[in-house]
Design goal:
By secondary structure, this protein is mainly beta. The chain contains 3 helices and 10 strands; from the N terminus they run ββαβαββββββαβ. An 8-stranded mixed sheet has the order 3-10-8-9-4-5-6-7. A two-stranded antiparallel sheet has the order 1-2.
Length: about 130
């Protein structure tokens, strides 16, 4: 289990991100093989009808447990590049949707810079999602 500190005025609180629970949800999304290179540049969208852009995928990194996180540059949102678990996202057409984390939890994710990069040619699995509207 990874603990994430919430950003903002309630920074003293922590919100746990349960990777096994995220993996169980992701498995029900009909995971599809996709090359990491095909994800680069895709927008990360908020899972709401307005589909706000939360960042852009810059690549993928490998976690210590062997799982894969997407390296997402959040730009104006928080100005950082964070490691978003693939278990918490889904493919939505040409975009990637943030599904099981709030925008506040996204801001609190660890930086992606220190983890080993996944080759752009490597194939990973990400589930499919339906449009939000």
């Amino acid at each position: 289990m990874i603990l994430l500190a919430l950003a903002g005025p309630t920074a003293a609180a922590t919100a746990p991100v349960d990777l096994p629970a995220l993996a169980a949800k992701a498995a029900r999304r009909f995971p599809q093989p996709v090359r990491v290179a095909d994800l680069v540049g895709r927008r990360l969208l908020e899972p709401a009808e307005r589909q706000a852009v939360l960042g852009r995928v810059r690549g993928a990194v490998r976690r210590a447990d062997g799982g894969v996180d997407l390296s997402v540059e959040t730009g104006w949102f928080s100005g950082r590049t964070v490691a978003v678990p693939t278990e918490a996202v889904g493919l939505l057409g040409e975009h990637v949707a943030l599904l099981d984390l709030t925008p506040e939890q996204l801001q609190a994710l660890p930086a992606a810079g220190s983890a080993p990069a996944v080759s752009p040619e490597e194939t990973i699995r990400i589930g499919l999602v339906k449009p939000f509207h």
